[in-house]
């Protein structure tokens, strides 16, 4: 039912995992609706997808623009009927100072959480109006992270925003299952992208973006509730979730990044 989407929307498609997903799905008879904030990079990705035979529509805009993205989603759905919407756009923000925590947290939630809401809510609205129930070939995916499995001292704003998306996506899955609309939460570990290239901290079990796209697409085709990878990170995060609090207190340290107490 979900294995062969013909019309796919991807936010944050101008780089990273979003770009890799767009290139993975691009093929003859596939319609891609791609959005990103950088029009030049977005058009470069679009041209690469068109070269593989896909029909590509683009919108250069910010997922925080709720009215703008809702209007674009409506246009895409009316023209092509969306089968799969991947709310991928996000940022990894942090602060090495106490004074910067407020800005990092506010901006992280505005993009990583509200930006996902601005994408999936209109998509679900349009999909849920289709008849009869259960709806055929309609699915949304929310981009979380393995960091969302627990509050991480090295990235309070990022891990908390991704935890919110993980829980929300799991709740939506149950809420829309009766309509036949699939909902999956994607929880990657470290993926080789321009974003992680700037990271000076250790990144264990880093995998290439194209490999990540293959894993995600395979999981979505099976309508998996959670698509968490690589397996080493799955093991570590599940272990962490079940440890006693006194042990977590010993190991949940801001490893690899500047400690707050080390800044004036």
From TrEMBL:
- Reading the lineage from the top rank, the first entry is Bacteria
Q: Which family does it belong to?
A: Belongs to the short-chain dehydrogenases/reductases (SDR) family.
Name the record gives this protein: SDR family NAD(P)-dependent oxidoreductase
Cited PROSITE patterns:
ADH_SHORT
Q: Which Pfam families match?
A: adh_short
Looking at the keywords, is Chaperone present?
no
User: Which key words tag this protein in UniProt?
Assistant: Oxidoreductase
* UniProt KW Oxidoreductase keyword: yes
């Amino acid at each position: 039912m979900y294995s062969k989407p013909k019309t796919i929307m991807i936010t944050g498609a101008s780089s990273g995992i979003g770009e890799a997903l767009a290139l993975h799905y691009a093929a003859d008879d596939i319609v891609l609706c791609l959005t990103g904030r950088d029009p030049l990079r977005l058009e470069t990705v679009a041209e690469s997808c068109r070269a593989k035979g896909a029909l590509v529509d683009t919108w250069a805009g910010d997922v925080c623009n709720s009215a703008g993205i809702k209007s674009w989603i409506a246009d895409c759905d009316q023209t092509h009927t969306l089968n799969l919407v991947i709310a991928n756009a996000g940022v990894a923000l942090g602060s090495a100072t106490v004074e910067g925590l407020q800005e990092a947290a506010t901006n992280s939630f505005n993009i990583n959480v509200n930006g996902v809401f601005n994408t999936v809510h209109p998509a679900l609205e349009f999909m849920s109006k289709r008849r009869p129930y259960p709806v055929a070939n309609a699915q949304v995916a929310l981009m979380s992270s393995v960091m969302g499995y627990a509050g991480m001292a090295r990235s309070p704003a990022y891990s908390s925003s991704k935890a919110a998306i993980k829980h929300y996506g799991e709740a939506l899955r149950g809420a829309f299952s009766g309509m036949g609309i699939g909902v999956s939460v994607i929880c990657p570990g470290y993926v080789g992208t321009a974003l992680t290239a700037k990271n000076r901290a250790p990144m264990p079990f880093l995998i290439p973006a194209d490999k990540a796209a293959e894993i995600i697409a395979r999981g979505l085709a099976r309508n998996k509730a959670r698509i968490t990878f690589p397996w080493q990170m799955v093991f570590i995060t599940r272990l962490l979730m079940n440890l006693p609090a006194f042990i977590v207190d010993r190991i949940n340290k801001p490893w690899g990044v500047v400690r707050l107490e080390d800044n004036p």
